Amino acid sequence: MNNPLIELKFHFREMVKGNPKLRGVEADRLTATAVAANGVKRYFEGYYGKRFTDKLEEGRKLRESNPKAYVDALARREHLTSDLRSISKELRIVETLTTSDLTYAIGATREIEQRDPQPTFATDLYQIVRLKTRDDLTPITTGGGVNLIDRFLAVRPEGTPHKRTGWIGSNETYTMANWELGYELTWEALLQNRLNEWLDAMFELGQAAARTRAWVILEAIRLGATRLVLPDAAFGPNIGNLTAAEAWLGDQTIRGHHYSRGMTDVFVPFNWRATAEVAFKTQNVAFTGGASDTLTARSTANPVYGLATVHPETIITEAPIDTTMFPGHTNKDWIVADRNTVPVEMSRLAGFEAGPRILTKLSDIVELDTIGSFADHIIEVKVSDVVGAVVRDKSGVLLVAGQ
Which helix (H) or strand (E) holds 273? Predict the structure, then answer.
């Protein structure tokens, strides 16, 4: 069986040998860097999906058509690829020798991801999230933590002073947490030709990182939203339960103030998708009854027809639930929201706006002909994220119990 590591090793040794500009460069270290770069590439494919692969192709076309613009783009986005600093020297050489556009794609993807998060792990929860960036880990006061004593302007009669009002702060705070996961590629794994397994694991690590951000949003909703338990909870988001949820959103009292919100979005686990879609897309409801019933005129209009968009959410089913913190909660709960209120706030530490950082470390000495490394591994990888979330507007989101 061919071992791709062996082929890669001899490829770099020949290239270093034949290039006077690479005198003194360790070919084995370039080999290890190329393996690490492939792992990083698979991680970003796992986290960003097609958005990232599109930027790889964009980088190739720009490099071939306009080398100066390509270099300028790398320099302009250097701050977005600072987590590659530990291998940047060797990576620049590897990218030149292999015409890889990894650094370009990472910077370009993160640049747009800062404004429009679209990780490959599918979630629409970002549609009800306001994103903030913080420079430190001090507790954060929510943007929705203040209520005016008077919620409306007052008429000022001619010749009288304006009415003085004030506000009440709810003092709700939250903190960001450091989420990390990592593993190593060992020399033994390379000898056993398990490189492809490690690359697949790197892809899954990207998926796990994207899944974690969705989980943080869901946890904030479980912690901060009102949880509505309906008599017919076992039927899920059917017409009756959606009507009840809409009525709840439309008439609320929070801290002494009345709020009226409208249901624009419903986030459901996949087992409730068909129920919710039918409820919103059925224009008229048929009633059945016995022939002996009293003849009465009744409306057949569906009260929730076309009211909201249904979002099937894998994370609701897959996310673990701490039953001590959330007694009674299940993976069949569903979420109703008024998107216009942007009810959830998520903060990222500066540097993590476009997603987690991936930290890659090579062994100090790499010798692929002998013992592989003076450490227990050749490549160490760690993914780190610093984020936190909270419900900033309790009136705009409702967690409905499922069974």
Answer: helix 273-281
302-351, pLDDT tens digit by residue?
A: 999 999 999 999 999 999 898 888 999 999 999 999 999 999 999 888 88
Would you put residue 24 in left (φ > 0), alpha (ψ -120 to 50) or beta?
Answer: left
Q: Which helix (H) or strand (E) holds 252?
A: strand 252-254
Place of tokens 């007052």: 154
Question: Largest Cα–Cα distance in the chain?
Answer: 99
Residue of 40, 155, 177, 188 lying closest to 101 (CA atoms): 40
Token reading at 179 = 């989420």
Residues 6 or more apart from 73 whose CB is under 8 A from it? 62, 104, 107, 108
Residues 95-120 as b/e (b if ≥16 CB within 10 A, e otherwise) read bebbebbbbbbbbbbbbebbeebebb
The per-residue DSSP string of 301-355 comes to: B-TTTT--EEEE-HHHHHS---TTTSTT--TT-EEEE-GGG--EEEEEETT-TTS
Tokens of 143: 């943007």
Q: Contact at 8 Å (CB) between 236 and 336? A: no
Ramachandran angles phi, psi of 138, nearest 5° = -70, 155
* φ, ψ at 388 (rounded to 5°): -155, 155
Spatial neighbors of 247 by CB under 8 A, at least 6 apart, are none
Question: Distance between CA atoms of 77 and 107, rounded to whole angstroms?
Answer: 5
* Partners of 182 in beta bridges: 382
DSSP 376: S
Cβ neighbours, 10 Å, residue 162: 8
Q: Which of 185, 198, 181, 214 lies closest to 42, judged by CA? A: 198
How far out from the chain centre does Cα 221 lie? 15
Give tens-digit pLDDT for 103-113. 999 999 999 99
Q: What is the dihedral of CA 182, 186, 191, 194, to 10 degrees?
A: -10
Q: What token pair was written down for 2? A: 């061919």
CA 39 remoteness from chain centre = 20
